Amino acid sequence: MKKLAIIGSGDLGQQIAYHSLNDNHYDVVGFFNDFLPKGTVVNDLSILGGQEDIKRLFNLKVFDVLMIGIGYKHFRERAFLFELYKESIPFGTIVHSSAYVDLSCSIGQGVIIYPGCILDMNVIIEDNVLLNAGCVIAHDTIIGRHSFLSPAVKIAGFVKINRSVSLGIGTIIIDNLKIGENIRTGAGAVVVKDLIESGLYIGIPAKKKIELADTVG
After folding, report:
1. Binning pLDDT at 50, 70 and 90, where does residue 147 land?
2. Which residues, at least 6 apart from 117, have a Cβ–Cβ distance to it below 8 Å?
3. Peptide bond into 115 cis (omega under 30)
4. In what helix (H) or strand (E) does residue 178 lie, and over which residues does it extend?
5. CA-CA distance, 149 to 99, in Å (whole number)?
6. What per-residue confidence (pLDDT) applies to 42?
7. What is the DSSP secondary-structure string of 72-128?
8. Which of 58, 74, 131, 217 is least buried, going by the fewest C-beta atoms within 10 A?
């Protein structure tokens, strides 16, 4: 079994470690965290060091694959770290055993798919995407890299989600739509037309509420 190290030891990093270990994907050796001392124990796993230690410990074969446990509140850092290391360190992928992923689907590096997700025919999940529990992605839909889908998101067929999109819990998107980069939706939003401009969209139907400062160029 390959050894996994996770950047970030907060709630998301701990969830990735939990599913990796309990669903028999990787042997988790610890976390990288710039804000805790090396050797600190978090949920029975040690802090291996900070970002400056990642390449050195990979070269020493302390771990085989890397994943990013940084969530939707820090999209810029989430994307930056993946792009920084993707050419030199392999990224792991976790698809929970309770998820249904059709054989025609394409799953990128650094992806985690939580319990109970359903991915229909020809779905494409690009790199460094998180699908939280119970997401349903219909046929021929694309989820762009670095995106983050909260629990129970439902997306119909032929939808194109661009990079660094965060969909709030229970968001629904009807078929044949395009969602632009750096867009976020609030809980329970219902998207019935293309969303192009960066910002937070809420309500039924989803309408833009505010601009977002923490976007990824």
Report:
1. very high
2. 96, 99, 100, 101, 131, 133, 134, 135, 136, 137
3. no
4. strand 178-179
5. 15
6. 96
7. GGGHHHHHHHHHHHTTTSPBP-EE-TTSEE-TT-EE-TT-EE-TT-EE-TT-EE-TT
8. 217
- Phi and psi torsions of 69, nearest 5°: -100, 45
Give me the amino acid identity at 64: D
Question: Contacts from 159-166 at CB under 8 Å and sequence distance 24+?
Answer: 163/79, 163/126, 163/216, 164/75, 164/78, 164/79, 164/215, 164/216, 166/72, 166/75
Per-residue tokens: 16: 């990735």
Helices vs. strands in the chain: H and E counts, helices first: 3, 24
* pLDDT of amino acid 212: 65
d(CA 137, CA 93): 18
Instruction: Return the sign of the alpha-carbon dihedral for residues 49, 55, 61, 67.
Output: positive
| H/E element, 65 | strand 65-68
Per-residue pLDDT reduced to its tens digit, 67-95: 999 987 888 899 999 999 999 999 999 99
Quickly tell me which residue has 């995407």 as its tokens: 129
Element containing residue 160 per DSSP (H, E)? strand 160-161
203 Rama class: left (phi>0) / alpha (psi -120 to 50) / beta: left
128-160 burial: b if 16+ Cβ within 10 Å, else e? bbbbbbbbbbbbbbbbbbbbbbbbbbbbbbebb
Asked whether the predicted pLDDT for residue 100 surpasses 50, the reply is yes
